[in-house]
Amino acid sequence: MADAAHDASFDRATSSGSAEKFDKCCDGLSDWVSGLELQEVNRGFCGDRRNLMRFAVARRGNLEGARKQLEKCLRWREENLPADPLRLGCEACEADRHTHCFFSLGLDIQGRNVVYASAPRAKMNGARDAVLHMARTLELGWSHAHVAPQWVWVIDFTGFRMHDAMQVKTSVAVMSTFGDVMPERLGGVILVNPPTILSIILTAIKPFVDDRTMSKVVRVKIRPGEDLSQHPHPSLATLRPQQQGWLEKALTYKPLPGQLPPIGALDTKGLHFATGAPVQEL
């Protein structure tokens, strides 16, 4: 069995000087969940102390705040996730595999799942379906012990339109969900060639997103044909050479559903849905 991947949320717990406080909060959460009749989808989740610790860290050791957030998370998981990770999928993409554009490019040099997204390359970006697709994609990755608990989100703005910019509801739903039910999971957000109008979206979602999450969002300009291995921005340095090469090529494709380079050279085993993933036609 592969060793469990490093969890960066524990770095925050131990480096802040509040390790004892976080441990005590985590113990309190463990005691609380032990008295619940958990559904199958949440039994293993609550049995893993690392998951409980993320809520303790997110709420800075405040037990009541962490308990309320965990309670909300468990309810969301019961309503939206199947108990068996192998059954994770996207119903909308099973009907039309170009519905969404959110899929894994494999693991970066830190073992984090790197997920590519593009609104213009998706046929639909409705809030609920988009959030479910994203959450289930990430859960599928985290069902493997070798995948780090944090992930990296690469958002390609090639072909971004006013129509995409006005879908603020989806942006709020995505960021709120990840903040509420997946605390301490986001490793970074790389905005590739963002337009000026993006400021409208960031301003709209800022009240719904904590400062720590917003601090992980970076903007990166990439010129056509630019060699990403030589790019000065540090966020791109954590990508593997194959991922950098794929992104270089993707930026040259037309921003339309289904128009992306093949991912055969990337190591994405176990990170895609068995059915329904838009990546199947790449």
TrEMBL record:
Residue stretches making up the CRAL-TRIO domain: 105-252
Entry-linked CDD domains: SEC14 (cd00170)
GO molecular function: phosphatidylinositol transfer activity
Superkingdom field: Eukaryota
Family matches, as Pfam families: CRAL_TRIO
InterPro entries, A to Z: CRAL-TRIO_dom, CRAL-TRIO_dom_sf, CRAL/TRIO_N_dom_sf, PI_Transfer_CRAL-TRIO
Stated name of the protein: CRAL-TRIO domain-containing protein
